Amino acid sequence: MTDEAGFDALLDYLARTRAFDFSGYKPASVMRRVNKRMHEVGVEGFTEYIDYLEVHPDEFEALFNTILINVTAFFRDREAWDRLEAEAVPRILEAKDATEPIRVWSAGCAAGQEAYSAAMVLAEALGAEEFASRVKIYATDVDEDALAQARHGSYDAKEMADVPEALRDGYFVTEDDRFVFRKDLRGSMIFGRNDLVQDAPISRIDLLLCRNTLMYFHAETQERIVGRFHFAMNPAGFLFLGQSEMLTRHSDLFSPLDHEHRLFVKIGVGRPRELRDTIEPRMPPFAGAVRELVREAAADMVPVAQILLDAGDRVMAINHEARSLFGIGVADLGRPLQDLQLSYRPVELRSAVEELKREPHSIELGEVEWTMPTGETRRLVARVAPLIADDNLEGISIVYVDVTGFADIEGELARTKNEAETAYEELQSTSEELETTNEELQSTNEELETTNEELQSTNEELETTNEELQSTNEELATVNEQLRERTLEAVSVSGFLEGILATLPASVIVVDRDLTVQLWNRQSEELWGLRADEVSGQHLLNLDIGLPVDELKDPVRECLSNGASAVPLELSAVNRRGRPIGVRVSCRPLETSKGVGGVIVMLDETPGGVD
Question: Structure pTM?
């Protein structure tokens, strides 16, 4: 099988087994990233790599992390963010009523830094309280690991380096040397999985951020995604792209507000045929009825007990969890709440319902203990909430949350709510009516467009390579740190060795195989009157000291040739003070991993020296 056929087989295998469709991505970029991962695990061919994935299922996560490069940062390309804050945000606010919601979509959000950057920009413009009540930020990606990190909203000091100090202090709290986004504002942000190639877009968007994500797709897929973005946005909505992305082929959909910083505004009514082809085929026959059935089934299987009352306090719905928990069933539908034991056990509901009718607001009834019909004991948290439509109280929702055995139920419920809301938005966006006005495409110079497309492709490839180099630089920084530590260790060992030599009572001279002085200890300085820096690198037999160095030639060379200690010599010498002395000379070979690397010459002053 050829490399191209093997690569296509690998992409088909990933689509079938893991629902990851990379057919819309640039083949050269994907192939390069896959080859990098194959080299790391020691596999040569694409067919062999498929076999490797079947045997090692944990490899899928490493492969996807390699392909989906999550390089992002807070306020990436700061000048572009300044333009967004100065130009786009004021126009969005001016077009809205004071109570009208503002919807933002961060597509390809990676670990969430850009979504939180957008949150800080809007919170600065609106104020924290109004931000929490009006703004919804939907942040999506295909990488579940990156989404898990984004949901925590927790970053270390290095990741926070580009956040201005005022914003960091205003929107983050410190927990265990990490910075965590404020929980009161975190409720306005929803993180969920969305594949831009396959899944429907989120609708009614005022600001759409998709920065350096489109560059991973080939031209045909980019065109389809941009068409969906246009459909998802409100009239005059704003599209914020990365520095490596352009919209030269989509001038009928978006007009540049600031071309240099990739800020565009929506124009026109889109391309209905294209959107029908990409969105409508996903809608099955009788989609409305099916959706209602699915919604009812989903509500019935929600893992919290829920009872719905109408405005007259009659039971209108009881889900599966409530039926199992309290032993009530379909026969109780339509009965007044006060006729049921549930109205006062496990918690008093009647007074809470009356209070809610007087002033519609959610009421927390606290945690209670309940024994099920099966005899099993559970701990429940009860909550009563109004169901309001057109400013009228249409009903009441009673919810019991089972907190038995859960240490962090609040976090899990928040995640379930976020994912459910994202799924609801996706279903809702696919059901909206498409506008059907066609406009003539503007003619362009084919030769110039081809050149522009080639330049854009080259720029995108360079951006990808730059991000890969950034990752490599971080690895090199780690290696440099290790080298620095080893150098410090070597210096410490060298100092330790010099300390030992300094304490020896004898004069020690170390020479290499060329008889060049490599080491001259403190006793040698005291005995012969020359400092170490004066003799280092000098030939031993050329030293002008009070020792007949020519007598050392034979024993030193004997050590170098035989690798054994030479017979000690007794020599007459003159010390640095000009006094005659007797010296006992010992020569030993300096053993290294590559053999004899030199000679250690030790000179001891003999007690019977000549005065």
Answer: 0.45
